[in-house]
Request: fold
Amino acid sequence: MSTHTVLGREVRMPVRIRLAHAFMATYLVPAGPAQRLIDYSGLQILRLPGGRAMCTLVFVDYVDGDLGPYNEFGVSFMVRHHTAASGPGNLKALVTGRAGVLIHRLPVDGDFTLAAGRGIWGFPKELADFVVDHGSRTRSGALHQDGRLIADLTVRPGFAAPNRGAASSFDAYSHIEGVTRCTRWQMRPSGMRARLGGARLTLGDHEIAAELRSLGLPRRALMSSSVSRLAMTFEDATAI
Reply:
């Protein structure tokens, strides 16, 4: 079992999140602009029929975990696994779980999680200000940095999704300071609700908002979902 020292505190691996709440919206965006946005990572966008790619915006409230409580906002893209051979097979990779997720943006509101996220996994964490409601039937979150709006997302109630009980694992990719890393990430959600569409997104005048506009957002979401109870485990990162 490895350990990391973060701001004078020992963090043992794997890091466990015992309780979090989350809501998210997934959008189909043009694959070409999405690829140009993530070229820095050396990874390939997962290209879907019609020249589309999948971009997800998510608000997470970490209530009980090894890094303490904090809020997080993520912008992520589905990508081809770094071990996948080039060529067709993107849709098959998505269906069979042989795709990965690139964490492109990851604002948080805590100094410790920022230091841990960047130092242990290379996640692109930066500080921002959150106003979030995870407790109402309609979930909402507004994110600001330096007084400028990045995004305001509202997710309407969805239909209850089956709780299969088993955890799902996937590879999360990150890139900072010239290094792309891969982290095995396990999730065990319960109390999931999902629906087609169901999201309202407002973008501000921040640079991250401009990135999202370059992908054609805001637009109708492909789907939206919420998770009332989410447990997670993060393993050590591996440079690729």
Q: What stands out?
A: The mean pLDDT is 94. DSSP finds four helices and 15 strands in the chain. The radius of gyration is 17 Å.
